[in-house]
Write a structure and sequence with these properties.
Chain lengths: 316, 358, 434
């Protein structure tokens, strides 16, 4: 982005103004995420920098909101030692929410990644019929407004067999709403587009003749897949899986509509917290989540670069 | 195809079976939930070994109606207003409760005689009386403090934003009182088109300065954050902020709206026995009196009244903070459950249209 | 096995056979080549399709069909017809506008009694209440009175309970509800209603909400799209023209918000924009505003616009960036060397080349903005609510599910239209993430 040597003074001024504008936009992008980190160490229940915080007085800072994440919901918050941790593990609301988020995220990711990768392999074959409309349907969970998806799921998961009445089924078979399985299926549906997009993107650069070479050398399709295809598309699969996981980990609308009391996730707990009493405890959770997303982002970036290097897309 | 159907049926059925001994109680969240956890849940779990899941809702009647309608009930006990209890009982969604099953008072008075009038319904048992009141931030009005419902609508003398609940039930009456209507003509006015229009006209005068809240915990928070200078809210929540957290708030009892909260059990509750056990436990004399130790709501049993003493800090007398205190009842509007059972839907519709058309 | 199915393998086999045989080309096992090719292609297609099938079935069952079933409620509501069979039959047998005779009144009374006993009267009242506001209570209160029996003459008996039963508007609404198929919910979503004589008219001005909300949703989405363009264009350009090492570093600043939880970002904006929040504090501290004149930037449209612009900005930057990276800088240099000013070179040469990225980004941002729910619900107050919030309200508060479905159908229709345009212009295969 160096200026050409023939730039006029006006252009030089404009160039610097442009850089300042870009700096401000970057600030707009990142400041809201950074600002909550120091505020989560606030010793007072306020959302702004107190006098003591501004003068870097250690008294202005504390870990009380992080502690409250562990104690909120406990039977006996004054316990010590193992009793404290056992109580936290069993009863603290945020801890339970974290457990639920991880369980639901894990299984929905597995499901979405498995089905999505399989489908992406089919979609990227040149012989695939109706490629475009099928692709459009599979990407649509990302496009359709979440409130519509969640509403549809609310009725469906309340009585999943109602659609079987056309086959002569009674239309009654229990329900999926309020169960882990229901939330996992819903989140898998929402995560699928991300898997499809990332895996097909990896397959675009995939040289189909490698498969033929493998076949002509006598490898079975299975062997070809695991020895040739899989290693090459793995970075795409993993980033797709991470996207699916983040989608589930951050999803609240479907949870609001179909989860029961046992499936309180972190976003659900945050939603309650924000609407009710937005205490800095929310900021402590937010800070943890920001650190979590930094870790994920780093992983995905590393994978992307590795994949591009492997496929020789970026000469570096 | 058939075997697939059977497998899905089995799978879904398996997924639907609930866990061990537990009861899901849907209540109003915040300080009120805390008081119920302390007064009811902890001793209940200790005595019976049944764990209690507290679920917070802005108004538990909303998820209850949705769950019943979708045939997908996940809560066992709901803490709802009288009008909703009557309406849902009428529609056959709730378990009927026989007063004879409820524990008698310590002196042996039967539950049916011990509960205050109206506190026992076909399908519901009241636990507390609570008021919707105006509170203000004393630091914002140092010269002249507001004292009436009319002052709430006076933006010139008492500048600042106002916090109001996003529903017709607890806003329209206040507008009418502020407009000079007397508490006993409120329901006649709200039953007529002109009366409703009069209420909306009054609300229009402050509409652009209102921050609407939905959860009971929000109004004290809005006051504390300085987002509003005056708000209406549930008196127990303000009490909790004032006495429990030492916030500089003051309550205006003029034009309070008094209502009861009731425990109900939906017909398809996943844990019906545990639910009934919880309901009986929570509405006995001692528990209701205990709850008043944590929040300023009046117990629904006469026998509990004498057991109510100090706040949990051991030095604050509860009586002056109770919505049922005779001093606070002169201009109070009593909830008319029959009226709201019939008119809530239509007034809500009109209210939402009014709210959206800004 | 694999070799036999692969079309290329088939060609390879025949190629060696050509030298020895005359007549049509044949594979090694004697099958005509054209047929072998067709067969192996069909098989390849089938195998590709089989790979896709599990997911397609999954998405159909858990996503497409449920939404379809939900939308069915927008034109199908049997709340009245299923619970009031006799009077529905009477309506079917008579002409519209018929003054109800004693047979009609008797059917109504019998249905009311049966429905009150079965505790379905609330459902019936709710259905009629959608068309004639305020009649739910008429049904429930009458139901309470006739539950234990009602004596003929029914007309007089019912009018005795409430005079409103004689209202022709009410009978008109019941007639309409006596068949489960209805267009009334769609009419209501565009602030129209059916007059007693069957003609369509606008609703009372005080009740007109939905058209305004749709307009607001589209207008705010367009505004937010415009803002993301204004903020995203310079950033994308900078990233595309910087050396890779630097741009990769700066890219993190774009991707971090993208990966951060939506609720976290919304919370941050609440913290920043509140009256006692960070921005107001800084402004007061700088002396720009007085302590009494703190700005109201949240719980109104401003809150919705600011937070949504921030949240959707990466969706604009990423497609713009990927297009800009492919633009050859020598075009601009050529324009400059031919005498164009830098502005002209930008406007006539550079900008037109960014249009594909701009189109992709703008459509994506607009599509996502139109359906936003969480952020407006938390920071929008009442003036920043979008149509999604209205759908949610009808789903959870008023429980008018048919209305929610009708609004959802309209919203979904417009989103799918945009999606189709996106697919035509950009192609969904070109959707990229990070």
């Amino acid at each position: 982005m160096a200026l050409p040597t023939y730039a006029s003074p006006l252009e030089r001024i404009w160039h610097w103004a442009y850089l300042v504008i870009c700096g401000l936009i970057f600030f707009f992008l990142i400041a809201p995420i950074v600002v909550i980190i120091p505020l989560s160490f606030n010793a007072e229940p306020y959302f702004t920098f107190t006098e003591k915080m501004r003068s870097f007085d250690p008294e202005g800072y504390s870990l009380r909101w992080y502690r409250s994440l562990l104690t909120f919901g406990m039977q006996n918050p004054d316990a010590t030692g193992t009793a404290f941790w056992a109580d936290t593990w069993a009863n603290a609301k945020w801890v339970n929410a974290a457990k639920n988020s991880i369980i639901i995220g894990f299984f929905s990711t597995i499901l979405a990644t498995f089905l999505g990768t399989l489908a992406a392999l089919g979609l990227s074959r040149p012989e695939m019929p109706f490629r475009r409309p099928i692709m459009a349907i599979m990407i649509s969970p990302m496009i359709v407004p979440l409130i519509i998806t969640a509403t549809g799921m609310f009725f469906f998961y309340s009585n999943p067999c109602s659609m079987l009445t056309v086959f002569g089924h009674s239309g009654q078979c229990g329900r999926l709403a309020g169960t882990y399985l229901g939330v996992i299926l819903a989140h898998a549906t929402l995560g699928i587009p991300f898997v499809i997009i990332t895996v097909t993107a990896t397959l675009v650069g995939f040289d189909q003749s490698l498969n033929r070479a493998s076949a002509s050398l006598g490898a079975s399709p299975r062997r070809t897949f695991f020895k040739i295809t899989m290693p090459l598309i793995l970075p795409g699969v993993i980033s797709g899986a991470l996207f699916a996981f983040v989608t589930s980990f951050d999803e609240v609308v479907a949870v609001l509509f179909i989860a029961g009391p046992d499936q309180q996730t972190i976003p659900r707990q945050m939603w309650n917290g924000i609407r009710e009493q937005i205490s800095p405890a929310i900021l402590a959770v937010a800070t943890i989540l920001v650190l979590f997303s930094i870790a994920l982002l780093t992983t995905v970036e590393m994978l992307r670069r590795r994949s591009e290097r492997l496929r020789g897309l970026t000469p570096q | 195809m058939k075997s697939i159907l059977i497998t899905t049926t089995a799978l879904v059925g398996f997924a639907a079976t609930a866990g061990a001994q537990e009861v899901n109680v849907v209540s109003w969240g915040g300080a009120y939930e805390k008081s119920q956890v302390e007064a009811y849940n902890k001793p209940f779990t200790e005595e019976t070994g049944i764990t209690v899941n507290m679920i917070a809702a802005d108004n538990p009647a909303t998820p209850l109606k949705a769950q019943v309608e979708a045939n997908n009930v996940t809560g066992d006990v709901f803490d709802i207003e009288v009008s909703d209890a009557i309406r849902m009982c009428d529609e056959g969604a709730l378990v009927e409760i026989d007063p004879a099953d409820l524990p008698a008072a310590p002196d042996g008075t039967a539950a049916a005689d011990d509960f205050i009038d109206g506190a026992l319904q076909d399908c519901a048992v009241a636990n507390i009386f609570w008021g919707t009141v105006i509170a203000y931030d004393t630091t914002k009005f140092e010269g002249q403090a507001p004292s009436t419902a009319a002052d709430f609508f006076d933006l010139e003398t008492y500048p600042g934003k106002r916090g109001l609940p996003k529903n017709p039930k607890r806003t329209l009456y206040l507008a009418l009182i502020a407009d000079g209507a007397s508490p006993d003509e409120i329901y006649d006015l709200l039953g007529s088109d002109e009366g409703v229009q009069r209420a909306f006209d009054k609300l229009d005068t402050i509409k652009s300065d209102v921050v609407w809240w939905e959860a009971g915990a929000q109004p004290p928070q809005l006051l504390a954050d300085g987002e509003v200078t005056m708000a209406t809210g549930y008196n127990g929540r303000f009490f909790d902020a004032m006495v429990g957290e030492g916030k500089p708030f003051e309550i205006i009892w003029d034009g309070q709206y008094m209502d009861m909260d009731m425990f109900v059990i939906p017909k398809d509750a996943p844990n019906p026995e545990a639910a009934m056990e919880y309901l009986k436990f929570a509405t006995d004399t001692q528990r209701l009196a205990d709850q008043a130790k944590y929040i300023a709501y009046g117990p629904a049993r006469q026998s509990s009244a004498s057991l109510v003493g100090m706040y949990q800090d051991g030095k604050t007398e509860m009586a002056p903070h109770m919505p049922t205190n005779p001093d606070h009842l002169e201009t109070a509007v009593m909830d008319d459950p029959e009226f709201w059972a019939d008119h809530d839907a239509e007034l809500s519709e009109r209210f939402n249209a009014w709210l959206a058309s800004s | 096995m694999a070799q036999a199915l692969d079309p290329h393998a088939a060609i390879a086999t025949t190629a060696s056979g050509v030298e020895t045989d005359d007549g049509p080309l044949r594979t090694a096992d004697g099958m005509p080549l054209a047929r072998a090719l067709a067969r192996s292609q069909t098989q390849a297609r089938r195998r590709a399709f089989l790979l896709v099938l599990p997911l397609l079935a999954f998405v159909m069952i858990t996503f497409v069909v449920p939404i379809g079933q939900m939308l069915q409620r927008s034109f199908y509501n049997d709340g009245f017809s299923a619970n009031m069979p006799q009077v529905s039959e009477w309506f079917a047998a008579t002409e519209p506008g018929t003054e109800p005779g004693e047979d009609g009144w008797a059917a109504l009374a019998a249905d009311l009694q049966a429905s009150a006993e079965a505790r379905t009267i609330g459902v019936v009242g709710t259905r009629i209440n959608y068309d004639v506001p305020g009649t739910r209570s008429l049904f429930t209160s009458t139901g309470r009175k006739v539950r234990d029996g009602i004596e003929p003459p029914y007309r007089e008996a019912l009018l005795e309970i409430d005079e409103e039963w004689g209202d022709p508007v009410l009978w008109g609404a019941m007639r309409q509800a006596s068949t489960p198929l209805t267009t009334n919910f769609y009419l209501a979503s565009v602030d129209r209603t059916r007059a007693p004589d069957g003609s369509i008219e606008q609703v009372d001005p005080r009740q007109r909400v939905y058209v305004m909300l749709f307009m607001r949703t589209f207008w705010l989405s367009a505004l937010i799209t415009g803002l993301t363009f204004l903020l995203g264009f310079p950033i994308a350009h900078l990233l595309a023209t910087l050396p890779t090492r630097k741009s990769n570093l700066l890219m993190i600043l774009v991707l971090l918000p993208f990966w951060t939880s939506l609720l976290v970002r919304t919370t941050s904006w609440m913290v920043l924009l509140q009256q006692q929040g960070v921005i107001n504090d800084i402004l007061v501290w700088l002396g720009v505003i007085g302590n009494g004149g703190r700005l109201q930037m949240i719980y109104n449209q401003a809150g919705t616009i600011i937070a949504m612009t921030h949240i959707l900005l990466p969706f604009m930057i990423l497609p713009l960036y990927s297009v800009m990276r492919t633009i050859n800088p020598s075009y601009v240099r050529a324009a400059r060397s031919l005498g164009a000013t830098s502005w002209t070179a930008f406007r006539r040469v550079y900008f037109p080349q960014t249009l594909p990225g701009l189109g992709a980004g703008a459509l994506l941002v607009f599509i996502l903005a139109v359906g936003y729910y969480i952020t407006p619900a938390l920071v929008g107050g009442s003036s920043g609510q979008l149509i999604s919030n209205m759908i949610a309200m009808h789903m959870t508060d008023t429980l008018n599910w048919s209305m929610a479905a009708a609004l959802a159908a309209i919203l979904l229709g417009s989103v799918l239209l945009l999606y189709w345009i996106y697919d035509r212009l950009v192609g969904i295969d070109n959707l990229k993430l990070g």
